[in-house]
């Protein structure tokens, strides 16, 4: 393995798990080939690759939207050219843990919308469920195809100071970001065409095919070519690039609410040759906007009467309506108990320690140690509504405490975790930045499939622990390596 000043100048953060360097600054073996390759590149060469990546993102319109930014709506998604590498053994562990977790969460959703055994057995309090704004009584006793509620999941993982994977959050409604995973890989192929095959990196490009296969399998009509559509809120949605990308890669129609109509409790798509019945809807519209006859009457994003067609079983909707109760941050703290209750197993992937602030003792403890805590609203996402105790002023903390006291059920707190770091190419230097990982799981009648990789999000601001793109974060390609052959050679695919 070669070394260079480029890598020798890397300053790992103490008491933090670094993905590339061990505590003694020895390079971890999965990164050796990458370092050997990059050590032959000059700073000028790497700068050119970084500029090429930015141009490709710009040309392909790979953007996201920040609604509260005064700089404009559309932004190019920041991309770091140094990959994040996960070994085959690490991935096997993550994959087993996610499958176990999603199996339990699916059972939980079926249970609370039907028999509610987990409530009757005092595992999850009924008031925690009923006080969740995403628990929809309209879904009570409504059957869903194959009893699958979570068809697409994005499970956010972090690594603590020991390198152990922890689940930070479950995203079970309309998880986003998979298009960035796909585009990151395509960009990396352009930047390092020889490096990926020599390292034995597993592919991610089968995701659209797997998703389309699962969507087709949910069709209520037993026909050879069911009609699948992707329902988008429209061009002003923050993830519209992803909607167009997935529709194109799957070969399905991208529609908005105005393109669909319900007649005789069936959903139809308006076409130039008349109405065409729709069998499966991959919706990227939130529950409360789906049907103005049932939820928000002022909504123009959904389709009037679609809930009636859904209840009747004439159309499949992905993900199922009402999933939000399972990714509520207050419910999150009960997931290990769900795994034990439904599966009689110990959780493979552990939660971050979580304090429910509706509990007076927990609230008192958190208030006394708030400078060591991250406090979150239970139904916010995108990094909004958080209090980072170690970085907040006394005035901010006091205001937040008053907000908590008004509605304590709406808040949880977690100890500040020293997120793992990975090397990033920033301003001509290799610098450590905090990261997380969002693998994407697809649940269908044949089981749970997880594409080997996911979206590694990066807190590009020095010292920041917030990886969300809306808060200044970016992403990098995630490489899952194939296991070595019996002779110790890298298996290529």
TrEMBL record:
Every copy of the Circularly permuted ATP-grasp type domain together lies at 83-459
Xref: Gene3D superfamilies? 3.30.1490.270, 3.40.50.11290
InterPro entries xref list: ATP-dep_Glu-Cys_Ligase-2 (IPR051680), CP_ATPgrasp_2 (IPR025841), UCP005522 (IPR016450)
Q: Which domain of life is it from?
A: Bacteria
The annotated region (Disordered) lies at 470-493
Identify one Pfam family in the record. Answer: CP_ATPgrasp_2
What is the protein name for this chain?
Circularly permuted type 2 ATP-grasp protein
Organism expressing this protein natively: Mucilaginibacter straminoryzae
């Amino acid at each position: 393995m070669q070394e260079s000043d480029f890598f020798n100048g890397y300053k790992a953060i103490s008491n933090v798990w670094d993905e590339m360097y061990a505590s003694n600054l020895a390079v971890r073996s999965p990164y050796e080939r990458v370092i050997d390759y990059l050590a032959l590149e000059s700073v000028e060469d790497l700068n050119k690759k970084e500029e090429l990546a930015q141009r490709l993102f710009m040309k392909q319109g790979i953007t996201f939207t920040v609604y509260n930014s005064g700089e404009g709506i559309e932004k190019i998604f920041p991309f770091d050219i140094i990959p994040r590498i996960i070994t085959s053994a690490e991935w096997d562990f993550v994959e087993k843990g996610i499958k176990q977790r999603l199996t339990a969460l699916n059972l939980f959703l079926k249970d609370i919308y039907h028999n509610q055994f987990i409530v009757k057995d005092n595992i999850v309090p009924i008031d925690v469920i009923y006080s969740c704004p995403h628990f929809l009584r309209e879904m009570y006793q409504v059957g869903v195809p194959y009893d699958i509620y979570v068809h697409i999941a994005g499970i956010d993982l972090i690594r603590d100071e020991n390198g152990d994977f922890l689940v930070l959050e479950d995203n079970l409604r309309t998880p986003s970001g998979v298009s960035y995973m796909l585009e990151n890989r395509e960009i990396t192929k352009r930047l390092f065409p020889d490096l990926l095959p020599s390292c034995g990196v597993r592919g991610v490009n089968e995701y659209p095919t797997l998703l389309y296969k699962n969507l087709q399998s949910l069709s209520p009509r037993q026909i050879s070519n069911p009609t699948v559509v992707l329902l988008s809120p429209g061009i002003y949605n923050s993830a519209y690039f992803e909607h167009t990308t997935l529709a194109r890669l799957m070969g399905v129609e991208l529609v908005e609410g105005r393109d669909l109509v319900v007649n005789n409790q069936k959903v139809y798509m308006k076409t130039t040759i008349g109405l065409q019945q729709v069998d499966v809807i991959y919706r990227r519209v939130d529950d409360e906007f789906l049907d103005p006859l049932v939820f928000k009457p002022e909504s123009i994003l959904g389709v009037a009467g679609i809930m009636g067609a859904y209840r009747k079983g004439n159309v499949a909707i992905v993900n199922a309506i009402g999933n939000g109760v399972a990714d509520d941050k207050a419910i999150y703290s009960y997931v290990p108990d769900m795994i034990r209750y439904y599966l009689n197993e110990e959780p493979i992937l552990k939660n971050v320690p979580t304090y429910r602030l509706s509990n007076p003792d927990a609230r008192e403890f958190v208030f006394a140690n708030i400078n060591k805590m991250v406090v979150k609203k239970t139904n916010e996402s995108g990094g909004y509504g958080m209090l980072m105790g170690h970085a907040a002023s006394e005035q901010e903390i006091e205001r937040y405490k008053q907000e908590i006291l008004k509605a304590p059920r709406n808040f949880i707190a977690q100890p500040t975790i020293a997120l793992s770091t990975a090397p990033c190419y920033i301003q001509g230097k290799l610098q450590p930045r905090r990261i997380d990982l969002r693998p994407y799981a697809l649940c269908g009648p044949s089981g749970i499939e997880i594409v080997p990789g996911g979206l590694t999000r990066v807190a590009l601001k020095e010292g920041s622990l917030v990886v969300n793109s809306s808060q200044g974060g970016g992403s990098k390609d995630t490489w899952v390596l194939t296991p070595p052959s019996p002779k110790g050679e890298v298996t290529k695919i």
